[in-house]
Amino acid sequence: MKEKFREYFKKAKELYFGPQVLLSAKVFYVLVIASMLFCLVIAGVNALGGMGVVSVVVDLFSAAFCAGILWYARTGKRTRQCQLISIICVFFGLFPYLYFQMGGYHGGITAFMLFAAVYTVFMLEGWLAFGMTSLELVFYAGICIFSYRHPEFVKNFPTEEGFLRSNLMDLLIVGITLCVTMYLQIRLYQKQQKKLDQQNQVLSQVNLSKTQFLANASHEMKTPLTVVSVNIQTVMRILNHMEEKDPEAAALLTDAQEEIMGLSRMVSGMLSLASVTESTEKKRCSLTTIVKNSADMLRLLLKKRENILYVSTEEGMEVFADADLLSQVLVNLLQNANAHTQRDEIRIRAFYNGSQFQVEVEDHGSGIRKELLPHVFERGVSDGGTGFGLFLCKTVVESHHGKIWIESREGEGTKVFFTLPGYEGQLG
């Protein structure tokens, strides 16, 4: 018998307070159990105090009602429904009845009415909690005014001692109930928080492992990609020096070279992303210098497509950043602009914008499709590239407490903007 009881208790504990149950639902179950025990205690007090059979029966019925609510909410999907049922039935039905049966505002039931308001705030959320609590307080105030004007509806205790005993007992029960409820709520919250902390540690470890794998894989891929690229270039030079040239073979090698270069850029992006995720080495550096150097790196590439690059920067723009990563951002943006532009202008500007710096990369190329525009910063989304570059740019900029956004019209061109706080702003 004892073992069966233990097993039943274990199952009930798992059902109502297991790890799968939400914190709000656990608090509700605690309050229902506390209310059930309270009703049983009140039934005993009323029986000993000679309050009559009706009061005792009502108290026992209330305890049974709490038990029914607890059973009905066992699946966890009916918690909110049960909360509303308990508030309506108990606080708008039972408490008013007890108020008139136990001395009105002279009795201790008014303390339970205040407990009802606290309970409602605990259980409900937002405007529903505000509305129900306000309705309860107005309703209880109306009951008090009604009992004052019509005292004949109030059943008083025969002696002053009875009033005093009722008030002290009710206040004691409410106080104990509130203390126990708060204690259990805090315990449940602490357990929930501990569980979340453990999960966060596991996720952090998994994320670190993924980052390390990404970095290692990228390093391993970079060398063979470089070897393949060099071999393709060697074969292309051999083909160019042959008397009988094979145009088809040359075209295939050119396509292969472009694919290798695209894959190499993706690997470089993965390495940069890994460095952002793992640890970013930030120090005081000149945004002006980063912009100019990045532009110089891409001038020859832009020249191949007959694009002209215009650079406009202001002096003295200092940021607290990883210069290599910011350079990677600018290189990616310029490469994207160059890939979608032919025989036109590409502009890069860096300037003061209040307490922060703003960088703009503008082209007059093919632009971005309207349906693609809201998703361009998502990983894997591409309009002809690897689907990695803009995602990397967003990650790097946000890791430096900046913002990045894009404006584009198909057939007219694209503007990419990002902001960075100044050196003092990032340190402050």
Explained architecture:
The chain is α+β, with helices and mostly antiparallel strands and 428 residues long. It folds into two domains: 2-156, no CATH class; 280-427, Heat Shock Protein 90 (2-Layer Sandwich), CATH 3.30.565. It contains twelve helices and seven strands. It has helices spanning 2-17, 23-49, 53-72, 79-101, 109-123, 126-149, 160-241, 247-278, 287-304, 323-339, 389-399, 423-427, and strands at 283-286, 308-313, 318-321, 345-353, 356-363, 403-409, 413-421. The strands form two sheets. Strands 2-4-5-7-6 form a five-stranded mixed sheet. A two-stranded antiparallel ribbon has the order 1-3.
Annotation keywords:
428 residues; alpha+beta; Heat Shock Protein 90; two-stranded antiparallel sheet; 12 helices
Which percent band covers the strand fraction? 5-15%
Q: What is the count of β-strands?
A: 7
Q: What is the distance, rounded to the nearest whole angstrom, between the alpha carbons of the first and last residues? A: 67 Å
Structural domain count: 2
- Protein structure class: alpha+beta
Q: Percent of residues in helical segments? A: 55-70%
> What is the string of helix and strand elements?
HHHHHHHHEHEEHEEHEEH
Count of helix runs = 12
* Strand adjacency order, main sheet: 2-4-5-7-6
Give the rounded overall mean pLDDT.
76
Oligomer: single chain
Radius of gyration: 36 Å
Shape: elongated
Largest sheet, in brief, is: 5 strands, mixed
